[in-house]
Amino acid sequence: MVTGLYFTFGEIAEVSGVTQDFIEESVDACGLVPVMRLDAITGERVSHLPFSAVIFFSTLQSAGLYELPIEHKRSLWELLSNIESERLVTVELVGVAILDLPKLVGKNARQAIDYNSAKIEYLVSDPKIMGGAPVIRGTRITCQSVSGRLAGGDTIDDLIDDYPSVPEEAFRASDVYFRSHPACGRSSNHKW
């Protein structure tokens, strides 16, 4: 069950394939209501949206509905605002389109749920370890170093070869977490 899952704007952008700017612009226009929550790793207060926002933005991206009139985006949000991954169904958007959600966004929904579980299980921030930079639990491997290696051409298999005791899911969560959160010491441009 995914009721109660919340994601930062950056996490939603990473999973859904839309930009964080698009999410920020859509929040007010479409009637999404962000909530301030503590980041699961750093404990900082940041804006979050519910799991259904992953479905909403993934649908806009997968179906190419960026230019959909705002009233239709609002209608889509109303349709999807309480959805759970176990209940992805085909929906009709105000007579405009039939959206096969399992096909359009099922993979993104599963990725969001898996990421959230791995983030909580494997990532931690402790001021005594690497100055509080988010790391893989039980190691000094920072999320930034994982993401940097992957961006530099290494693969997850390369990381597993170097650190065989670290599960693949930890590396994947580290990469998504780093890419979706501003690095320590850098300010965020969010107005939330």
Overview of the structural elements:
The protein is of the alpha+beta class and 192 residues long. The protein has two domains: 6-105, Multidrug-efflux Transporter Regulator, Chain: A, Domain 2, CATH 1.10.1660; 122-180, Arc Repressor Mutant, subunit A, CATH 1.10.10. 48% of the residues lie in helices and 13% in strands. It has eight helices and seven strands; from the N terminus they run E-H-H-E-E-H-H-E-E-H-E-E-H-H-H. The protein is elongated.
- Largest sheet entry: 3 strands, antiparallel
Termini separation: 28 Å
Strand order of the largest sheet: 1-3-2
General form: elongated
Number of helices: 8
Write the element-wise H/E pattern from the N-terminal end onward: EHHEEHHEEHEEHHH
CATH architecture of the largest domain: Orthogonal Bundle
The total beta strand count reads 7
* Secondary structural class: alpha+beta
Domain tally: 2
User: What is the fold-level CATH name, i.e. the topology of the largest domain?
Assistant: Multidrug-efflux Transporter Regulator, Chain: A, Domain 2
**Proportion of beta-strand residues:** 5-15%
In short:
The chain contains eight helices and seven strands.
Highlighted features:
192 residues, alpha+beta, Multidrug-efflux Transporter Regulator, Chain: A, Domain 2, Arc Repressor Mutant, subunit A, 2 domains, three-stranded antiparallel beta sheet, two-stranded antiparallel ribbon, 7 strands, elongated, disordered C terminus
